[in-house]
Amino acid sequence: MGGNSFLRLKVGIGRPPQGMDSADYVLDVFDRTEQSLLDQILSQAAESLKVVLLEGLQKAMNQFQKKG
Fold first, then answer.
1. Environment class of residue 60 by beta-carbon count within 10 Å: exposed (0-12), middle (13-18) or buried (19+)?
2. Is residue 9 packed enough to be buried (19+ CB in 10 Å), middle (13-18) or exposed (0-12)?
3. What secondary structure does DSSP assign to the chain, as a single string?
């Protein structure tokens, strides 16, 4: 893409269990608990994108970005 001049919507996945390769963790299938949360997570991601488009990036960051 030639640079970092574009917006990204990131959805955090946490950290892999100790001793597990990061790539394996990222590419692994969702467990039952993660699967049950997926609809809620995707809904919130869609809502945050809507806020970015309609109200601006700063508003979306203030509303949805979690600290820590």
1. buried
2. exposed
3. --SS-S---------PPTTS-HHHHHHSPP-HHHHHHHHHHHHHHHHHHHHHHHH-HHHHHHHHPPP-
Q: Give the pLDDT confidence of 8-48 residue by residue, as tens digits.
A: 888 888 889 999 999 999 999 988 998 999 999 999 999 99
| Residues making up the chain, counted from first to last | 68
- Token pair listed for 19: 């001793």
Distant-in-sequence, close-in-space partners of 22: CB < 8 Å, separation ≥ 6:
16
In this prediction the pTM is 0.71
